[in-house]
Design goal:
alpha+beta, Nuclear Transport Factor 2, Chain: A, 4-stranded antiparallel β-sheet, 5 helices, elongated, NTF2-like_dom_sf, YchJ-like_M, SEC_C_motif, SEC-C motif-containing protein
């Protein structure tokens, strides 16, 4: 029985991320490394996660917290939102992704814009920055033909809506 790769590529894991995680091949792009790192969390391949960190990222690496997160989470899926550079021959790349997971039955989403660097043919994770979703408007939107909220008595479109 074949098993689809958890990274969401649609390929069988043995034809996708497993060769990178096992060391049989190197991830050819920043996105391939990102996908394989997600799969490594799913498969709890903690050595691979550490081995694919850049020197500067290793300074903040905590083996125990990575292990706890990998083991406590039920990994629900990876979505790649965008990539910038990070192709074969590039020196650096950025991948924006969302990883969905559940801890104690509570679904969560980790959205990040990750930076990668190619060191002599080896893509490495450098750093990541959390990305928040679109802002949530809490106040009611004023319609163009409604009275202006400033109290002028004019329609919004003729007053503050200009």
């Amino acid at each position: 029985m074949t098993k689809e790769c958890p990274c969401g590529s649609g390929l069988e894991h043995t034809q996708c991320c497993t060769p990178y995680i096992s060391g049989q091949a190197k991830a050819p792009t920043a996105e391939a490394l990102m996908r394989s790192r997600y799969s490594a969390y799913v498969f709890k391949e903690l050595d691979y996660l550490k081995a694919t960190l850049s020197e500067e990222a290793l300074k903040d690496h905590d083996d125990e917290s990575v292990r706890q997160w990998a083991e406590s989470a039920e990994w629900l899926g990876l979505t790649i939102h965008d990539t910038w550079a990070g192709q074969e021959g590039d020196e650096a790349g950025i991948v924006e992704f969302s990883a969905k997971y559940a801890i104690d039955g509570e679904e969560q989403e980790h959205r990040e814009r990750s930076e990668f660097r190619n060191d002599n043919g080896q893509w490495l994770y450098v750093d990541g920055h959390m990305v928040s979703g679109p802002p949530i408007r809490k106040e009611r939107k004023v319609g163009r033909n409604e009275p202006c909220p400033c109290g002028s008595g004019k329609k919004f479109k003729k007053c503050c809506g200009r």
